Amino acid sequence: MDWEQLDLNPRIIIALKKACVKSPKELLSLSGPELQKIAHLSQREVKRLHAAVAAAHRSSPPVTALQLALGKCPSLEPGHRLSLVCPVLNDLLRGGVPLHGITELAGESAAGKTQFGLQLCLSVQYPQDHGGLGSGAVYICTEDPFPIKRLRQLITQQSRLRPNIPQALIRSLRFSDNIYIEHTADLEALETCVAQRVPMLLERGLVRLVVVDSVAALFRTEFQADEAIERARHLLAFSSTLHRLSHKHGVPVFCINQVSDVVDGPNPGRCDFGLVDSKVLPALGIAWANQVMVRLLLRRQEGCLRSGDQTSTLRKLEVVFAPHLPRASCLCGVWEEGVRGISHEDFNAQP
Question: Could you tell me the pTM of the whole model?
Answer without folding.
Answer: 0.78
